[in-house]
Design a protein that fits this description.
By secondary structure, the chain is mainly α. It has one domain: Growth Hormone, Chain: A, CATH 1.20.1250.20. The protein has 17 helices and no strands. It is globular, with a radius of gyration of 21 Å. It starts with a helix and ends with a helix.
């Protein structure tokens, strides 16, 4: 298979970062128990993770091709290998801050590189759609795995036992580093501008294009939906379904697993069906789940629950919304990147990362406000608004990309 080494490397890189990024909630919990910090102090770890992603993407995305995508990914993998070992030996809240700041910086390097390289190892839009969806699917598998990986190393007898997981994460990062180091990159990497200032201006020029404006609105709306549901589903499970805390968290992993399955399936389906019909079906199906399934879970009478097996089947239905919202993000990214010249992929990826971070942050805040002011049983109904806006914007984006190709 052509470029198989590069593709495997992209999968590996995304997989390890999915685990590290999704571990922030677990480390917040352990920081309160082991390091004596309160909830407000522990919550700063989210900022240490997210802010470096947005800031670094903004400043390096446009001229990352000058550094070289392979070199940038090697730097990212090297940094998280060292940071994982530092977390094990440091065993402190400050070590956790350093870990997530490093993960954020490194992920910015990885994501911009991965998204830019997809265009060099695919030959048409359908291949681009397929690879983008499958890579994002592997990312969701990593997220789901984090829900089970950290508890596997945690024991009540030894409060520091959970730190052993960082030896495994460091090993996976190092394995990815070595594999990437010996992977041959046949295609030369295009340099977008004539100098660094011109590279930096590429992102600002892109944002003035109508296709970019419509696209970033799409990305913003989708991530608002996804992160809003993902961040607050454990709270919904506890307050509305009245599930025990640990079971509520495990139930949230069903959303991550369904997102993974949805994205991997989309990677196959989009080889045969045009992306606009895939996305139209997906968003309508998601809206129908909210309209018809959510009321049944809200009104569910739950008896004593001690394991996942005790939960009525309808309780598993709403997290399956992940199957239908899953293909949206990778397909939107793929559609727009495919419509742009290769030299603009790095700059556009910078915009993707920035607006994804903004959409995720705002989505979580809005759903949190709705949980408090409208009640946890009503909050998720408001996702119908951005879903409806997405459905309209899909067809606007289709028209713009078709015009751009012509």
């Amino acid at each position: 298979m052509k470029n198989i080494g590069i593709k495997i490397s992209l999968y590996l890189n995304y997989f390890v970062f999915a685990i590290l990024l999704n571990s922030v909630g677990i480390v917040i919990l352990k920081s309160q128990k082991n390091y004596g910090v309160n909830e407000v102090q522990a919550s700063i770890l989210e900022a240490f993770k997210d802010l470096p992603i947005a800031i670094v993407s903004f400043f390096i995305a446009s001229f990352l091709p000058r550094i070289g995508y392979k070199k940038a990914m090697l730097i990212g993998l090297g940094l998280v290998t060292i940071a994982s070992l530092s977390m094990y030996y440091g065993n402190s809240f400050n070590s956790a801050k350093i870990l997530f700041a490093t993960v954020g910086i490194s992920f910015a390097l990885i994501k911009v590189s991965v998204y830019s390289l997809i265009g060099t190892v695919t030959e048409n839009q359908k291949e681009h759609n397929s690879l983008m969806s499958s890579i994002e699917g592997v990312f969701m598998i990593g997220i789901a795995l984090a829900y089970f990986l950290f508890p596997a190393f945690n024991t009540t007898e030894n409060p520091d036992s959970w730190l052993n997981v960082y030896w495994l994460l460091a090993s996976i990062s190092l394995l990815s580093f070595v594999f990437l180091l010996f992977t041959k990159f046949e295609k030369s990497e295009a340099i977008p501008g004539v100098n660094l200032m011109d590279d930096f201006l590429q992102m600002f020029k892109l944002i003035t294009k109508i296709i970019t404006i419509v696209f970033v609105i799409n990305v913003f709306l989708f991530v608002m939906i996804e992160q809003g549901i993902m961040s607050w589903l454990p709270t919904f499970n506890e307050k509305v379904l009245h599930l025990p805390e640990n079971i509520g968290i495990m139930m949230a992993s069903i959303l991550a697993i369904s997102l993974a399955v949805g994205r991997l399936a989309a990677g196959y389906i989009t080889k045969k069906i045009n992306w606009i019909w895939v996305l139209t079906f997906c968003i309508i199906a998601a809206m129908l789940l909210v309209i018809f399934v959510l009321p049944k879970t809200v009104g569910l009478e739950v008896k004593a629950i001690n394991s996942l097996a005790d939960i009525p089947l309808i309780g598993f239905a709403f997290p399956l919304i992940g199957l239908f919202i899953a293909p949206i993000y990778p397909l939107l990214n793929s559609v727009v990147l495919s419509a742009l010249p290769q030299k603009l992929h790095s700059s556009m990826t910078g915009l993707i990362v920035i607006f994804s971070a903004l959409g995720g942050t705002l989505g979580s805040r809005i759903i949190g406000w709705l949980f408090q002011n409208q009640g946890p049983e009503n909050a998720f109904y408001f996702t119908l608004i951005p879903m409806g806006l997405l459905l309209i914007s899909f067809f606007i984006l289709k028209k713009l990309t078709t015009k751009n190709e012509a």
